Amino acid sequence: MAGRGGVDSHKHWDGVIPPECSPDPSKIFRLNAHLRWEVARDPLHQDIDTKKTCGVGPGMSFANAVKERVGVVGLVPCAVGGTRIEQWARGTHLYENMVKRARAAAHGGEIKALLWYQGESDATSQHNADCYKENLEKLIHNVRADLHLPSLPIIQVAIASGEGRFIEKIREVQKGIELPNVVCVDANGLELKEDNLHLTTHAQVELGHMLAEAYLTHFLPHSSHT
Q: Which stretches make up the Sialate O-acetylesterase domain (predicted)?
């Protein structure tokens, strides 16, 4: 989710931004690490996931794909790559920072959805895989409770790859969550980089479009004007 599209094995980002990820200074903004709004552009997570090189993720193609229907889009990047879901439990730095950022963003607008793409690091052990369903459902419950948004739309991604042999177990959980207002898009089959773990730039663009389609289809009220 933090975006490794275009980042090579030497941790260098090629700087290529596809047209689908172009900035739109009038419509697409992001909340930076200092909780200030600025024009959004890739890498969206450069001041959030600071210990790794960030490139293209799904956020900009998502925003460009929904802006004509929703108007101004505020992105609130919170992802940190290579993390297990237990590191996002309530009380952890990652979770509390995400909630803090979401609350700050809510002062300037309305929180419309959470996009969640995680799980590769949980595919390494039987224990993590076995606990994944409980941990994911707890995360959803906690975020909704702490933001006072009991029906917050959540679009999660079924992982396309992983760091261990329990990928299918994680994918089963992700695709099988049956909580209200939670939908899943499947990244399986999207093009992977040479590391067989992260999505290519093209695949990230595609994933952004899949997330946008899910949001527009499931969560955007249809009006007679559209």
A: 1-216
SS (H, E, C) the chain: CCCCECECCCCCECCCCCHHHCCCCCCEEEECCCCCEEECCCCCCCCCCCCCCCCECCHHHHHHHHHHHHCCEEECCCCCCCCCHHHHCCCCHHHHHHHHHHHHHHCCCCCCCEEECCCHHHHHCHHHHHHHHHHHHHHHHHHHHHCCCCCCCEEEEECCCCCCCCHHHHHHHHHHCCCCCEEEEECCCCCECCCCCCECHHHHHHHHHHHHHHHHHHCCCCCCCC
Cα dihedral across residues 3, 111, 206, 88: positive or negative: positive
d(C-alpha 4, C-alpha 158), whole Å: 17
Q: Which of 134, 115, 131 is nearest to 123 (CA)?
A: 131
Give 226's pLDDT tier (boundaries 50, 70, 90): very low
Q: Is the peptide bond before 23 cis (omega within 30 degrees of 0)?
A: no
Task: For residue 86, give the nearest of 57, 40, 26, 127 by alpha carbon.
Answer: 127
Instruction: Give 166-199 pLDDT, tens digit per residue.
Output: 999 999 999 999 999 999 999 999 999 988 889 9
User: What is the phi/psi pair of residue 199, to 5°?
Assistant: -75, 145
- Is residue 79 a contact partner of residue 2, using CB atoms and an 8 Å limit? yes
pTM of the model: 0.95
